[in-house]
User: Fold this.
Amino acid sequence: MTDKYGRTIDYMRVSIIDRCNLRCQYCIPTDIEWLPPQEILTLEEIAGICRQAAAIGIRKIKITGGEPLIRKGCIDLIHMIKEITGIEQVTLTTNGVLLAQHARQLSDAGIDAINVSLDTLDREKYIKITKTDALSDVLAGISEMEKYDIPLKINSVLQKGVNENDWPQLIGLAKDRALDVRFIEMMPIGHGKGFASISNDELLQKIQEHYGPLEAVTKARGNGPAAYWHIPGFTGHIGFISAIHGKFCRACNRIRLTSTGQIKPCLCYEDHISLKEAVRSGSDEEVQRLLLTAIDRKPAGHCFEDQTMITEKHEMAQIGG
Ligand code: SAM
Assistant:
């Protein structure tokens, strides 16, 4: 499916829950208002929307949240989506806290790749950022997941004055392991607005000063806008998602479904279309029509460079990142 700017739209991020078991300072403020369960789509409704999305050309689904692994039935949902004709890939992003206990089930469900969000390997800093003493659980989850032949990526957001100098340890995870470590620039969405974004270009420069010239990876890796590099001697790769300093909207391939059944054409704007009524009334044609309308309403690009233009008011945990 191609949008009016000629972009291929084949990827849908699906947030299945707005709650999380961590309270990351830039992602979930303490005063967030959680929704009553009836506001949230059922797993069958989510799978139904994915079915209609596949019918219009969506090929890849990312399960996200909040924290998807705290939603009962998350694994069942992955099974359901994997069976949809036309869906080629189902992937998951998680904070990793519950990963160890779900690793085998995720593998059995046929998950195609897993992203683990992890901003530091320092226990005290981890507690400061997430308000939870769970670093050892996350590291156990990563080790457990490595037993399966499933691509694994670590996603890190660096914050000035907090973990900006933690990149050498984070990168170290890719030294002898077949996993990628990616740095996501802080985006001015929700609580993230209060945090300055560290430029990935500057980070790349620091990494090159340390390791010497990196090799650019030209072969596509993953479904998104990350640019990948290889450090000679490393098993895994280093990726950069430069949402602020490297605007990549010309290659945007996605729409986002929130746990309340709203389709978002772009992360930056509050514009959304509700699918809840259509899916609850069982109208497949209407769900498809609304999905196509959302794709048609995708803007040419975000406006992160001018915060006064950003209209999205929700937190990243409510949108799914
Ligand atoms: N709980 C899951 C996880 O941790 O991967 C999924 C949801 S979380 C919102 C998805 C990702 O968004 C995490 O990697 C998180 O660090 C990132 N994130 C949250 N707020 C952000 C912001 N303002 N800018 C950039 N990334 C952000």
About this structure: The CA atoms of residues 76 and 109 lie 8 Å apart. The mean pLDDT is 96. Residues 20, 26-27, 64-65, 67, 93-95, 117, 155, 157, 184, 186-187, 189, 192, 316-317, 320-321 surround S-adenosylmethionine (CB under 6 Å).
